[in-house]
Specification:
With 196 residues, this protein is of the alpha+beta class. It has two helices and eleven strands; from the N terminus they run ααβββββββββββ. A hairpin with a 2-residue loop joins strand 3 and strand 4. The N and C termini lie far apart (97 Å).
Length: 196
């Protein structure tokens, strides 16, 4: 009989749920224990922190994926000076300010190159970096060779590979002459990914 009484009480108090009586005589739900309220707050707080952390971690990943589509190569023609600075049949060292620089770069923004005047009005402008591992090459006038001090890479005066570990010749900049000045396309560094 006591089972029937409990069942009847549950049916009257909670409309058949299994909460043990639920709504009391006053028609309100029982108060939530302070421990349960704190647990719910901490769960929401932790989930919020986890969401913020996930968003912060996603920013560089999204930037990595979207970045190349956003940034396009643009021509940045840089002045290397008058063409008279580069006599015919000679190779000269030149420097220019990298157009892709930051205010904090200082002297590191100065980029070097080798300018070879094949004949009047015709030039070759080589990146200073060896095609092997990027060490700076030097020009030796006596032997008419570019040589890399790091691993012994050697290049002929026209930039083609002569000996050593480099897989190819020196990288070349695109150039043009305007108003008696030699300009190079320095908006990108020449490399394997975009040959000229």
């Amino acid at each position: 009989m006591s089972d029937n009484t409990n069942a009847e009480t549950k049916k009257e108090g909670c409309a058949g749920c299994d909460c043990g009586g639920g709504v009391g005589a006053g028609g309100s739900l029982p108060a939530v224990a302070p421990q349960d309220a704190r647990r719910g707050f901490m769960f929401k707080f932790g989930a919020g922190l986890l969401g913020i952390g996930g968003l912060l971690a996603a920013v560089p990943i999204v930037g990595y994926i979207v970045g190349p589509a956003r940034s396009r190569y643009r021509n940045e023609w840089v002045d290397l000076g008058a063409t008279t600075l580069y006599p015919s049949g000679q190779t000269r060292f030149a420097t220019f300010l990298n157009p892709i620089r930051q205010p904090t770069d200082g002297d590191a923004a100065k980029t070097a190159c080798w300018v070879r005047c094949v004949e009047t009005g015709k030039f070759q402008v080589f990146a200073i970096n060896c095609a092997h591992l990027g060490c700076p090459v030097r020009w030796f006038e006596q032997s008419k060779l570019f040589m890399c001090p790091c691993h012994g890479g050697v290049y002929y005066q026209d930039g083609t590979r002569a000996a050593g570990p480099p897989p190819r010749g020196l990288f070349e900049y695109k150039w043009k002459v305007e108003g008696g000045k030699l300009l190079i396309d320095a908006g990108r560094l020449p490399g394997l990914e975009e040959s000229v």
